[in-house]
Amino acid sequence: MFPAETVIHVLFIMKGAGLTHGGFYSHFDNKEQLVAEACEYAISDTITLLKNVADQEEQNSKIKK
After folding, report:
1. How confident is the model over 23-64, as pLDDT tens digits?
2. Core-most of 4, 18, 24, 45, by most CB within 10 Å?
3. Exposed/middle/buried for residue 31 (C-beta within 10 Å: 0-12, 13-18, 19+)
């Protein structure tokens, strides 16, 4: 992760995504919105992964019985 005092510029984010700087604002109002949506996506993805693992464990425990 980046230290708390690190500044990440929109230009850096967009260049990494292969998009133009101006294109950022057609998708997000600001960097805070980007971060919020990225966190939401990551949390949702993690929950899905954990549910899949729990379902697999449940299936494995039924097979063992």
Report:
1. 888 888 988 898 899 999 999 999 999 999 999 988 888 777
2. 24
3. middle
d(CA 48, CA 38): 15
> What stretches of 1-65 adopt beta strand conformation (E)?
none
Quick check: helix, strand or coil at residue 65?
A: coil
Q: Is 54 exposed, middle or buried (0-12, 13-18, 19+ CB in 10 A)?
A: exposed
* CA–CA dist 21, 12 (Å, integer): 8
